């Protein structure tokens, strides 16, 4: 025992490139139980060697990888392909673990007794790696950093991954008997040795995954293959059957008797209409698939012939009169957007669901550009919605599409006024959301153009260039702020960039907004801002009271649900605020306490004007913080003009839900900081558990 212990210790603490491993071999890199440090609990993604061959190879070779168990090191073969890093026990392995590098950072590290080590950090995991030589380490670091500069995937690369029919594997365990769809034998239930496709739920052993055919959920007519049917009306949609592994409560749609088995792979489920049928009853089913309850939102693969030379879909079906394009920000909602991305691909055609973090909105919009009309569902925060709307501007698609919002961000002000609520964090609600989306009405959203004009630098004039103005443009969908609220937004953005883990959830984000707002109670950085700015509304100079900021509102929701205008009805002086009246509401910001109290009390004494155009002149030599829809910067002295740009068609619910509890909680958050000094105060964190209940935690 003593000799074996010494041998193990030497192997664990002194890794060398010729040292053998004293562990039994495994099928994939992590199947023996080793676990990397994870920043969030996330399903472990894996790929087969065949799937990786479709991607551009950047670099590959052997590295040592540190495990979490006693800081042991193991040799692993790494392949950097596209923006994904793969690793396995050796280069001939059939299954590789994968690490998404879309938002990764890499740096050299100093590790005791280990030379040439470096760390790779993503939002979900942290890997400690070690190279054979310093040159090899520098080559790997350079290669990993180079892929960060790739802003988008090549269209051909994306099409290969998105429409190839390949399964999207992840390692999983099973609580009930489950069987491999390849060899038909049982899968281990406790350890994560089985693989499941996140789209079609095809099950396989790791050893069998490489032998599985590319028969994931169909995307185009070409992927339907031998199942294509023809009739007098064209090409109808056939059922796509997957055998076995049915829910416990499954019943046959033909005979209404129980389906499935815990002893073998038995009976069938359609991936599209979700119908379940016995082996013996299958022939009695109709050949044409009705696509299920939400067929209006589904684009049948038989309707998508191909992508033409311009990169657009060729659609040949009357059922595609108004298809749904789903754009998901996978990093929104405390990185819970991944769940929604997976669920939408299960419910709809995977070809109509895109990840905004994987190429942006352009590819999805271009593919749908030839449809006469189509609908868009943006799953993310206000920033994601603004991103998609800006892309619609570039492609000139506003007249043919209507846009709905599934709120996953922090503020979600636009989703609130459109009637979709302040937060959706349960992917089990997606069926109801699709139903509401199909019954939604269309309203026009006013969008404004913000012009930032500043004088050219004195140095440029000295060099002989003509004196004049530099003009920069941006689009405002929600609101514009200058002074206090913009400073808080700017400091929060800086904090998030410096310490992303401290701003990784809605609760933490609101906490930091509370901290920064409380600091301003003491500092009052922009006290007497009225002496540094001038305001004109529709060309009329407006006298300003003593204030710390100005807010220009395009929608009646501000900073996570505040009705900062102080009401929704017209009175003797002003009309009712609306996002489709081509008017802007201008209000004064007196301080953090006023912003907090506005969440529950309709304050109105701070109203300044209701107008169509706003002009703000920044005086003096120093810049002032400004923000547009939460994106903040320091604006140099000059002129800011806000004028109407265009209108976008938005999908709205008739009844706007207004949660008073939400406003009370926000008030508590600000009030606690307002009463206590921000250095010794308390932090109230809150989190929704359901629509009717909240959980509170008070931390000193």
From TrEMBL:
Stated name of the protein: Diacylglycerol kinase
Entry keywords, A to Z: ATP-binding, Cell membrane, Cytoplasm, Kinase, Lipid metabolism, Membrane, Metal-binding, Nucleotide-binding, Phosphoprotein, Repeat, Transferase, Zinc, Zinc-finger
Predominant subcellular localization, coarse grouping: membrane
Chain spans, region Disordered: 1-37
GO molecular function, one term: ATP-dependent diacylglycerol kinase activity
Family: Belongs to the eukaryotic diacylglycerol kinase family.
Biased composition range(s): Acidic residues: 27-36
Catalytic reactions on record: a 1,2-diacyl-sn-glycerol + ATP = a 1,2-diacyl-sn-glycero-3-phosphate + ADP + H(+); 1,2-di-(9Z-octadecenoyl)-sn-glycerol + ATP = 1,2-di-(9Z-octadecenoyl)-sn-glycero-3-phosphate + ADP + H(+)
Keyword Cell inner membrane part of the UniProt annotation: no
Pathway: Lipid metabolism; glycerolipid metabolism; Glycerolipid metabolism
A GO BP annotation: phospholipase C-activating G protein-coupled receptor signaling pathway
Coiled coil start-end: none
Annotated ranges, domain DAGKc: 319-454
Stretches assigned to the Phorbol-ester/DAG-type domain: 166-216, 238-289
PANTHER family referenced in this protein's UniProt entry, alphabetically: DIACYLGLYCEROL KINASE, DIACYLGLYCEROL KINASE KAPPA
Organism: Scophthalmus maximus (Turbot)
InterPro entries xref list: ATP-NAD_kinase_N, C1-like_sf, DGK, Diacylglycerol_kin_accessory, Diacylglycerol_kinase_cat_dom, NAD/diacylglycerol_kinase_sf, PH-like_dom_sf, PH_domain
Location relative to the cell: Cell membrane; Cytoplasm
EC id: 2.7.1.107
Residue span, PH domain: 56-149
Keyword Metal-binding: yes
